[in-house]
Design goal:
The complex is a heterodimer of chains A (344) and B (561). Chain A is of the alpha/beta class and 344 residues long. Chain A has 13 helices and eight strands. Classes of the chains: A alpha/beta (344), B alpha/beta (561).
Chain lengths: 344, 561
């Protein structure tokens, strides 16, 4: 789709990693401790306490090679991390928070199953440590979700959920606008590998990659939810936000990109809810760099989206606001601006 | 090759045109108002059937790509809404790299406040998208900016959308609907005003007023003015409309800069005595009472001296160019006080003028701010400036008598060569139009001037060569004059056409080659192997070469070559 329009801007896409290469040092946050926080999440229809840990590995290999247009997580990584350090730090977090969570998420700002990031010994040790937790969620690009890797970690922990950043089921959008570097078929294969080891699969979908109008983004995500239903157990809807040092940030600064409207997220959630769990955490919701509306209704809607994520109840969405007239106009007319968001 | 669009009238970079599309003939600048039209145009980007439409998203990176569409869309133009530097650069860069007879569309950018400026920069197509967005964001738009409408009050307006539809205390949806309608009506009203100004050749005057709405727009105009070549390439040699210099930005008009550039680079060098005079409200200056009085008192010496007039914003006007636009046709607010910018500008022009000529004596019959300027200039010049006015006023008998004596003494001391004062007008105008030393090439022996000021007929060697036309202040050549001008190697101000006998109008499609230096209203020589003709250019020379449509030259006389 959209082969004619925006193609010049889109071809700048190849420079996504160059942008990062030119980042000022102060953008790269070097941490000494892994980040961890607790929260609430959905498990088998129930709201349960969760712990999230971000291990400071060397980070995503793809981000260093080419990079996705919206991703700034490479800034959170630690290029000199070693296996023993990471494991020690992980144990430190467990000592601090305990293991009494229904869900524990172990993230790396990259792929948990990439043995260059986390050696098999370390990852198995970490998962074995968590084998009694009802659900351990890890993240990985699909190329590492192989039968071999899945069978290996299944021996350490049987209650794993593998989260994969599919972003969109549309290969053109994923390839050209997100620069993700894998296909929908790759995702399907990974999903099958995970499930045949008894794991569940979470699919991340990205609402509003660059170069899409609000309406196109909405349609793409709704379609992606439908296409993914068969291959995932839960969908996490990520509302694109403008992270530092990303290609998306460059576009945003030139007024060529705007994060999605919260109305669009509400529309996607209400249209797709019911078939399978779909959750959404509007990171930076209501901020200029995050998904936002007019500024008046944002706070309420962010809260409603969070409530919906835990309840899956469409009745969570009650707010109305005058800016819905504007949002509707944007949906109808943004394509006629030929690449600029109608409302900042 | 452009097929569906044609420029019919130019006012600098702004144009009126005709766009043939879907069995309609739209007058541009045009507002795409319906969603249907927006959709059709968008489809045409990929279909390219009847109308060829191309999107340029990165104006800095057009490179060698050849764009030949009828309509060119500046993609994501809205990104420049608050970025005057980006907008001015993008518009000029796109305009310069596409065919002059392609229509330029800036989607979702126009508002009643910026419409005139977009068109001034060279935009032909706009839409109502942004005014509709603004209404939904809670803004009513006017030509002088925007107001937020709140929930209790109506907004003061008598446009067709607002009359009789009170929305005080109405539901928000109703208020938005009315604001949206109002904003679109305001855009349409501004469009018709802009078209009228293009028709009159006064869009610049409108724009100098409009740009006051916001600092962003004032910056936009100033940044456009920094691109002198872009506007000079499109500025007509002359206008019939009076140039109104009502703002600081007036000093930067391409026509004014070009006038001064040519005074310095094209005119025949002067020597001997220079008499500096203040400007007058009435134009040409010689028709004003003040100039009549002063000239009467030095009448006997005029054939021996050079005269020049100091004026804001034009600069220095040699007497022989006082009929030429813009010197012959401008107006400026007169308060007796000059701004620093004005003083600095005129001082600079005076210094340049004295430096490129070789005057031995400068007599300044001026006082007040004119004298301050002369004093400052004199400090930087090798020539002495003497003043014939002290503090009694330029028209006082004492000053006039002093002037007469000073001029008389100077003439006696230098005994300069006698000239025909009327011929100065012809000489300077011809040089101004056609380039340095042209007059020496055209007028070989002793040219005879007949007629009443300022309509002068010049014959040379018994043949009519040129006429000074009062309406435009330009010199029209006869075919004989043209033959003398082009000599053996025709080049400057020539238009080479296909093999036909030009009558009436020569269209761009028939032009093979044209001197890129030609500007609208220039006198040009039209040539092919068999014929030579003289006429008036209707578009710039570079535009004739790159256009397929439109009238290029209005031919006046034709002869066998």
């Amino acid at each position: 789709m959209k082969r004619t329009q925006n193609h010049e801007a889109r071809d700048q896409n190849v420079s996504a990693s160059d942008i990062r290469a030119n980042l000022n040092d102060h953008h790269v946050r070097s941490r000494t401790q892994p980040v961890a926080w607790t929260g609430w999440d959905l498990l088998n229809g129930e709201t349960v306490p969760t712990l999230t840990v971000v291990l400071r590995t060397r980070g995503c290999y793809w981000a260093r090679r080419k990079g996705c247009t919206m991703c700034g997580f490479v800034c959170d990584s630690n290029p000199s991390a070693t296996g023993p350090d990471i494991y020690r730090e992980f144990l430190g977090v467990l000592a601090r928070f305990g293991k009494e969570f229904k869900i524990i998420k172990i993230f790396t700002s990259g792929s948990f199953l990439d043995s260059e990031e986390l050696s098999p010994d370390v990852r198995n040790a970490i998962l074995a440590e968590l084998k009694d937790v009802p659900k351990t969620i890890i993240e990985s690009r699909p190329e590492f979700v192989t039968d071999e890797n899945c069978e290996e970690i299944a021996r350490s922990n049987a209650h794993v959920e593998i989260a994969i950043g599919l972003e969109s089921s549309n290969d053109y959008i994923r390839e050209r606008y997100i620069n993700k570097g894998f296909t929908f078929r790759d995702f399907i294969r990974a999903s099958k590998a995970a499930r045949s080891s008894g794991f569940t699969v979470k699919s991340y979908l990205l609402l509003k990659p660059p170069f899409l109008t609000e309406a196109e983004a909405m349609r793409d995500t709704i379609q992606s939810v439908k296409d993914t239903t068969e291959y995932a157990d839960i969908i996490s809807l990520n509302l694109c936000n403008v992270q530092r040092g990303t290609f998306v940030e460059k576009l945003w600064k030139k007024r060529l990109y705007r994060p999605p409207w919260l109305w669009t997220a509400v529309e996607v959630l209400t249209q797709t809810a019911g078939n399978m769990p779909i959750i959404c955490d509007p990171v930076a919701g209501g901020m200029r760099r995050g998904p936002h509306n007019c500024g008046i209704c944002d706070h309420e809607i962010v809260a409603e989206i969070r409530r919906f994520s835990l309840s899956q109840d469409k009745a969570s969405f009650k707010t109305t606001c005058a800016d819905k007239v504007l949002w509707n106009f944007v949906l109808e007319f943004e394509e006629y601006s030929y690449g600029a968001p109608l409302v900042p | 090759m452009t097929r569906q669009f044609e420029v019919t009238l130019r006012d600098g970079a702004a144009r009126l045109g005709k766009l043939r599309w879907k069995e309609r003939e739209l007058t541009t600048p045009h507002i795409l108002e319906s969603k249907e039209d927006l959709e059709l145009l968008k489809k045409a980007v990929t279909d390219n059937e009847e109308l060829r439409v191309e999107v340029v998203s990165d104006p800095d990176d057009i490179g060698s790509r050849e764009i030949t569409a009828d309509v060119v869309i500046l993609g994501a133009a809205l990104r420049f809404e608050r970025d005057p530097r980006g907008l001015s650069r993008a518009l000029m860069s796109v305009r310069e790299s596409i065919n002059p007879d392609a229509a330029l569309y800036t989607p979702a950018l126009a508002t009643p406040a910026n419409l005139s400026m977009l068109v001034y920069a060279g935009v032909d197509l706009i839409d109502t998208v942004l005014p509709e967005v603004k209404a939904r964001e809670g803004f009513v738009l006017y030509t002088d900016g925007e107001d937020r409408f709140d929930e209790t009050q109506g907004f003061p307006c008598v446009c067709s959308a607002c009359l009789g539809t009170a929305v005080d205390n109405a539901a928000i949806e109703q208020r938005i609907a009315r604001a949206s309608e109002h904003n679109q009506v305001a855009l349409r009203a501004e469009l018709s005003r802009v078209r009228r100004h293009i028709g009159q050749g006064t869009l610049r005057e409108l724009v100098e007023g409009r740009c006051r709405a916001t600092p962003v727009m004032t910056a936009f105009l100033r940044l456009l003015d920094e691109a002198y070549p872009y506007f000079e390439r499109r500025a007509p040699l002359v206008r019939t409309a009076t140039l109104l210099a009502c703002s600081q930005e007036s000093l930067n008009r391409a026509e004014i800069l070009r006038f001064n550039e040519r005074v310095i680079s094209r005119l025949t060098q002067r020597e001997g005595i220079l008499l500096l005079l203040p400007c007058s409200a009435r134009k040409p200056y010689s028709r004003s009472r003040s100039h009549k009085v002063v000239l009467e008192c030095v009448r006997a010496f005029r054939p021996f001296i050079n005269e020049a007039i100091m004026t804001s914003p034009i600069g220095i006007v040699p007497r022989g160019l006082e009929v030429m636009y813009p010197a012959g046709n401008y107006d400026v607010p007169v308060t007796g006080k000059w701004t620093c910018d004005e003083k600095e500008w005129v001082r600079g022009r005076l210094i340049e003028f004295v430096e490129v000529n070789s005057f031995t004596t400068v007599i300044a019959h001026v006082d007040g701010p004119y004298r301050e300027i002369c004093d400052e200039a004199a400090a930087m010049l090798d020539v002495d400036v003497v003043y014939s006015v002290e503090d009694e006023g330029v028209l006082s008998p004492v000053a006039l008598q002093r002037l007469e004596e000073m001029v008389k003494d100077a003439v006696a001391a230098h005994s300069p060569k006698r000239r025909d004062v009327r011929f100065d007008y012809i000489r300077d105008t011809v040089d101004y139009q056609f380039g340095k030393s042209t007059s020496a090439r055209i007028f070989l022996s002793a040219p005879k001037v007949r007629g009443r000021f300022p309509t002068y007929y010049v014959s040379d060697g018994g043949r009519r060569v040129a006429t000074l036309v009062e309406k435009y202040g330009t010199c029209a050549l006869t075919v004989e004059g043209a033959r003398r001008y082009i000599g053996k190697r025709a080049s400057q101000y020539c238009v080479w056409i296909d093999d036909f006998v030009p009558k009436g109008t020569v269209f761009a499609i028939g032009v093979q080659r044209a001197d890129p230096v030609i500007r609208p209203f220039d006198e040009v020589i039209v040539l092919n192997d068999n014929t030579i003709a003289v006429g008036r250019a209707l578009m710039s020379g570079w535009e004739m070469q790159r256009s397929n449509r439109g009238a290029a030259v209005a031919v006046r006389h034709v002869e066998d070559r």
